[in-house]
Write a structure and sequence with these properties.
207 residues, 2 domains, 6 helices, alpha+beta, three-stranded antiparallel sheet
């Protein structure tokens, strides 16, 4: 998830701007002494309120705290130690969306009682990850088997930045939009078979 997917001006946004995580979600140790000027709002006393476990940044990155610099038990430095497993189920999906899709059938296997899947396998769209702004069309019903398969392909895509080639499943096209390269933006998954199998099949008519 890139900084653009966090609310501009939010504390998480400011920390990412200061820490500059790499493509794997790793940063240097950032000292509290750097929380001045533009970043002054990041300052805290006993606990970093803006990166508690329920926050979006904590659901996205592995956050580490260092308390060894000064005496006592206060946090002195913070760093990000890689992206979390984005399929660990920690991301919230609004209850009405869950309820809607639980009555549907898997868009791949046609089986009932599906899991509710984020179409965007990179989970890097702030609006989709926020329950107040996510929409029904951001999700789809997938059986556990199909969702497990998608999870593995999405992990591979995040690792290599190469999108899944649907020709491996026997389809005559690889993608209905874009190419093999994932551009790492919130729209980078659009066109992949796993992003929306129903939409993908519609484009086979164009072929």
């Amino acid at each position: 998830m890139s900084i653009e997917n966090f609310k501009i001006g939010s504390k998480a946004y400011l920390f990412l701007k200061l820490a500059k995580p790499d493509s794997e979600g790793n940063t240097r140790w950032v000292s509290k002494d750097e929380f001045v000027g533009e970043y002054a709002s990041l300052m805290f006393k006993n606990g970093a309120d803006w990166c508690r476990k329920e926050s979006l940044i904590a659901k996205t990155y592995n956050i580490e705290f260092d308390k060894s610099v000064t005496p006592g038990n206060s946090i002195d430095r913070i760093r990000l130690n890689g992206l979390k497993d984005l399929e660990d189920g920690s991301q919230n999906i609004r209850s009405d969306i869950k309820k809607y899709y639980k009555t549907k059938r898997c868009v791949i296997l046609g089986t009932s009682n599906p899991e509710v899947d984020h179409k965007n396998g990179w989970k890097n769209d702030y609006k989709v990850m926020n329950t107040s702004t996510q929409k029904r069309e951001d999700f789809q019903p997938l059986s556990k088997a199909a969702n497990d398969a998608k999870r593995q392909f999405c992990k591979e895509c995040r690792r290599t930045k190469k999108r899944f080639d649907a020709k491996l499943l026997g389809y005559p096209i690889s993608f209905y939009a874009g190419d093999e390269e994932h551009d790492e933006t919130e729209k980078g998954c659009v066109g992949c078979f796993w992003y929306d199998p129903l939409e993908f099949r519609k484009h086979l008519k164009e072929k």
